[in-house]
Design a protein that fits this description.
With 109 residues, this protein is mainly alpha-helical. Helix 1 runs antiparallel to helix 2. The protein starts with a helix and ends in an 18-residue tail after the last helix.
């Protein structure tokens, strides 16, 4: 196993970790704004790290160039999309969650 393979495995594992953290954030966080933050930060970092690891495995060539371009595209568009979604929610007067906001559960009627 070459050093590039070891670094690629580490990058993919770290990227997978950030992807799992983003998924947990979407499930556990209380409102749209905090969920968008979790997905835009963690998901972007996870995807970029994973694609960097994949690019290391591919070596040099057209496939690596496409993978790097895909990582750059995700790095630019994912936070931009999250910002647009939260801005649209703000424009629709969706109130952010605060400590004073009561969180309803299934048993509360």
């Amino acid at each position: 196993m070459s050093p590039f393979d070891i670094v690629a495995i580490i990058l993919v594992l770290i990227g997978t970790f950030f992807g799992i953290v983003a998924t947990i954030g979407v499930i556990r966080l209380p409102d749209l704004y905090t969920r968008a933050h979790a997905t835009s930060k963690n998901d972007t970092l996870g995807i970029v790290l994973t694609l960097t690891g994949v690019a290391l495995v591919f070596g040099t060539g057209v496939t690596t160039a496409k993978t790097v371009l895909l990582a750059i595209f995700v790095f630019i568009t994912n936070p931009t999309a999250a910002h647009a979604i939260t801005r649209a929610a703000y424009d629709q007067n969706i109130v952010p969650w605060t400590a004073d906001t009561e969180v309803k559960t299934e048993g509360d009627d």
